[in-house]
Amino acid sequence: MAERPPATRDPQLLKGVLPMLVLALLREQDSYGYELVTRLRDSGLTDVSTGSVYPVLTRLERDGHLASYLVPSAQGPARKYYTPTDAGLTHLSVQRRSWQQLGDVVAVVLTPGPRRARPAPEARP
Amino acid sequence: MTAPTPAAPAVPRPGLRDRLRRERYLLALVLWLDDDYPSAQRRALVEQLRGDLDAAAADTSMHEAIRSLGPARRLAAEYSELLDPRRPRWGLGAAAAAGWLTVWLLAAAVFASALWQVAPAAGADGATARLLWAELTVVNTPRETSVGWQEGFPWTLVVALAAFVAAARPWRAVPALRGRAGRATGQS
Q1: Contact yes or no for B188/A60 (Cβ under 8 A)
Q2: CA A96, A97, A99, A104 torsion: positive or negative?
Q3: Sheet of strand B127-131: strand arrangement
Q4: pTM for the complete prediction?
């Protein structure tokens, strides 16, 4: 994992992309809640809190984008693992395209262009 | 492609102090959850968080694991928001019925205490007056002290039932009767 300086992110910005990131990570490997949090942190979202991830998992499961199954643990309660459904993978593709399109627009808008002078106010009669 | 998981990693059992911390947080979460949060989901959620808190505590500490979850009240609110807003609200219905019964009993108590003041002058038959559909008789003599209550038709319970039905909207238990409004909760 590349060392990145801790960044202060707008929580709302993160909230918007978190479901997509969760689906993307689960597409690679099924995970239980806390494991997913550590994977998000290892990906660079060092400031993501577990409290923001669990409701996202529940919402994705409620909407049919994730399925879950219990895996017994050698010690303690069984773990609830999440896996993306076909609908979830389709949803991820759509989200990814939307995100890329939005990213393109944002990149264009944020690219500094030549500064134009403000038009002079019209003289009143 | 998703790789299946063969077995959940074992984590060391937290100490007594950490287990108490964990259970205190989970209890607070359960208390803040919506009254109508399905009990099966509630149990599954608590069980899931219990295991995951232990795993997080093994990495850092139970204090840090709980801190990362955020205040129990806020987390419970986020989970409650995920419920279908068109569900029956049994808890709300019970609260409405209980509220009506409380108001009614308070009104009857105030009414009876007013009759108590005039009952000695009414003699052995006591003072009788009507409060809406109920008839109260208060006897207050040196030989007898009593409060009687007569209600022909049980209107008090009928109103309580009406309050319950109006607030709980039990017809929503039938999916076809839930109305056409879509889910108000955010779609991911």
Answers
A1: yes
A2: positive
A3: B127-131, B134-140, B145-151
A4: 0.67
**CA atoms within a 13 Å half-sphere pointing along the CA-CB vector of B65:** 25
Res B63: pLDDT: 94
- Contact (CB, 8 A) for A100 and A115: no
Q: Is the pLDDT of residue A34 over 80?
A: yes
A99 and B CB contact within 8 Å: no
Q: Which of B11, B75, B188 sits opposite A51 (nearest CB)?
A: B75
Domain locations in chain A as residue ranges: 11-108
Q: Are A37 and A50 in contact (CB under 8 A)?
A: yes
Predicted confidence (pLDDT) per residue in A58-93, tens digit: 999 999 999 999 998 777 778 899 999 999 999 999
Phi-psi region of A38 (alpha: psi -120 to 50; beta: other; left: phi over 0): alpha
> Span A11-108: which CATH code?
1.10.10.10
Q: Write down the residue that tokens 């308070």 correspond to.
A: B106
Report the half-sphere exposure of B24 (CA within 13 A, side-chain side).
11
Cβ atoms A72, A95 nearer than 8 A: no
Among B48, B68, B78, B81, which would you mutate to test the A interface (most chain A Cβ atoms within 10 Å of its Cβ)? B48
Altogether, the residues listed in chain A come to a count of 125
Listing from the earlier edge strand, what are the strands of the sheet with A31-32?
A: A31-32, A79-84, A66-71
Q: Which residues of B touch A63 (CB under 8 A)?
A: 187-188
Contact A79, A71 (CB under 8 A): yes
